[in-house]
Amino acid sequence: MDVRLPITTAGICFALLMSGCSPGDEKHATSLEEKTAKFEQSLDTITDPKLKDAVSELGGSLLLLQRAKQKLDSNPAKTEYGEDALGVLKHYPTPQALVDTFINGLFVLHKDSSSDYLTDLQPVFPFNLNIPGGFLFPHGVEWQSVTLSNKRVIGYQPEWSETDPGIQLSPSSSNVTNPDDLTVTYPFIDGLNVDKKSLPQPVSLQGKLEVIAPRRLYSFDLTQKDVGQTRTNDNLSVKLLKLEKNSAEVEFSNSQPLAPEVAEAQLNPMIVQARDASGQYLVRAGSINESPEQVAFYEKQLTNLQQQKAWSDALDKQLTAEQQAFEEKHPKRYNKVYFNGPIETLEVSVLDFSSVTVSRKALDLPIRAFKQHTTEKAIQPLDLPVTVYDDQTVSWLKGASLTEEQLKAGVRIHQSVEEPSAARIEFSHRRTFNDELLGDDFNPGESPVTFFTEKHNGKLDEPIELPPEAYQVDPLRATITYDLNLFPETPAIAVGSMPLFLATVAKQAYDEKSLPKGLEIKNNTLLVDLKLFPANEYRYFVKDDSGNYLKEILSVSHDASAEGPALVGVHYFYGRPTHVETYQRTDLATVQYGFEVKLDKAQTSDAAP
Hints:
Blueprint: H1 7-19, H2 26-44, H3 49-73, H4 95-104, E1 107-111, E2 118-124, E3 139-148, E4 153-155, E5 168-171, E6 182-185, E7 202-222, E8 230-233, E9 236-243, E10 247-254, E11 270-275, E12 284-288, H5 292-306, H6 313-329, E13 333-339, E14 345-369, E15 373-374, H7 392-396, H8 404-409, E16 412-416, E17 423-428, H9 433-436, E18 449-454, E19 460-463, E20 471-474, E21 479-482, E22 493-511, E23 519-522, E24 525-529, E25 538-543, E26 552-559, E27 567-573, E28 579-598
Parallel strand pairs: 1-14, 15-26
Antiparallel strand pairs: 1-2, 2-6, 3-4, 3-7, 5-6, 7-14, 8-9, 9-10, 10-13, 11-14, 12-13, 16-17, 17-21, 18-19, 18-22, 20-21, 22-28, 23-24, 24-27, 25-28, 26-27
Helix pairs in contact: 1-3, 2-3, 3-5
């Protein structure tokens, strides 16, 4: 029996554990570390392997949950804006229309590999599956085979086999962030040089796809006055248990049972979002999906397990029955969600899976190859029968008008003193559209830095005289590296100036009938004369008649025929562009960021010399 907490919670906890604790968490962390140590010691006393595994999994999950709650409760008060998690659904008239777009927008790219014995295949979905929460609806892709240019069909296998002498199709080991990526592996023959072009190439990928659309989606808008109240729409009910400055506790229930098709699926039917007084969506900091009653139940189960001497079928049945009884008694789904910013309005959206529509499709997808730079004269089509919008473009383009003050305000300073001979100060900022247009014509100017000792009151003392080799400033990477072994005194503060770079960006907007020379819309592509619109100075965004930005699929550069331009940029989109916006870097300024950094102290050994 699996007595762990839901795996989604464990994943959140692991992510938070890796992010470490702030100084304010130190006391709690110490207490938790002591609790963890005692739990690990108790595991050593359990001799039955199955019982030990059950106690380890359940107890470990509870400890991770406690760490996650501590981390989220101490989340610093900062405001960070994000996107509407349901924005993609709002572009389509029904959930089924979104499903159809998901299915019909899938295609497969042939990717070059550095090895002569490997060919990588990348299934490209029209929607980003790696966003927090992933695609809204339950879905699954099962790859079955690949057809080669010599008509041979290679079956899919879940792992590459070292002993299989033939051609293999298996998951890619080079891209752990995209589990759908595949690799065609050819047999390696020691001492024999193989011309990759002579090998049979993959031409189509076979498989099957399933997507489940809920009956409907309904959203409840809640404020402080709704705390303690239950809001109902037909079979859906939402109760706001608590609304604090940056967190909310919500319960959801569906009076109708889940449709049989999703009865065993891991569903996320409730999406909780928040806006502040400005009306903008706040970024989620994390969530806890176990109610206090659930946690108490799991703790009781853990105590029971720790009192056992051995695992048995009777114990397994008892735990299963207890869990089923608890779930029947507590059918409501609980969620405590934390946000980066003060909550004004809560938006709780519920996907109703009491009835569903299941869409299945057998896949036989041609494998397409697009080189980043090609000398092919013909422009290869990539016209998919779907329209997909990119809601993040609006926020991204705010970087086109970035000011000097905004640039400076976004700087974050990190230090590393683990290696005294290569201590570092790093200046970074969140990447914006402005960074994309900086180009490579930088003039950083002077980047002075002076190291000081410190008086007892924390103020600057005397500057430290240093040989030139004691430190190095890299203005283009915004780093200062210094060797503490060459310092006659321990530095306490670094004062200086680091250059930042700010582009001046000019925007032009055109409709399809007024495009200037060098820009042309053809079906779902934008063709760009790269002599008139140099790639390092320009970026392009397109809209259709709805006024929304279209999502770009990919872009390549083409050497064209003798009759046309020497070089053409080809941008492919999901949909039909009717309006084009160009963004040109017209100037590049250097902005000096003055700093005074209190230096972290390097760890020193207490051992005698």
